[in-house]
Amino acid sequence: MIGGPSEYPALWAFLDSLHRPEILSGTITAIEPFGVFVALDDGPAHPVFPGVGFISVAELSWRYFEKATDVVQVGQRVSCEFLQFDTWNLEARLSLKATQQDPLQAFADSTAVGQKLHGKVTKLVPIGVFVQVADGIMGMVHLREFALTPLHPADMPQVGDDMTVVVSDIDRQRRRLSFSLPRGSSRHQ
Asked: So what CATH class is 106-180?
């Protein structure tokens, strides 16, 4: 633990006054591989804790991204939902994505299992192929789908290929889409 209420009384009082789902505004002060530090507008001035707010990588965006700088930049103004008071690190845990609409939920509302979609291959993994079918919407075609019709390795999709898929499962809870290949038609377009 960094310090208790007696060591940093103004900071402790500020953080203890926050409640979920309060919206807090501030400026990004530092970006690290594990998350982003935010100087909160209403936070107390303190030389040891200039950020007071912290957004973990998982709370930055609903959309897939490679690194935090794909979502935010140092100096950028943000409004985030307060999640909890981290008494160990003396910081407000924040969520930027909680202030944004989840694109998967909107997609799931307008898409049905069995529906054909067109997309672009974004990633190859040992168990399958990820296909992006809309902005922020990606799902996986499992490798077993390709085994149903024996393919020459040169016929396997590559990153950047256009591909037609069929929605086989929409898991709202786990935020996952599963795709299959359309039967009787070509795999890539």
From this structure: mainly beta
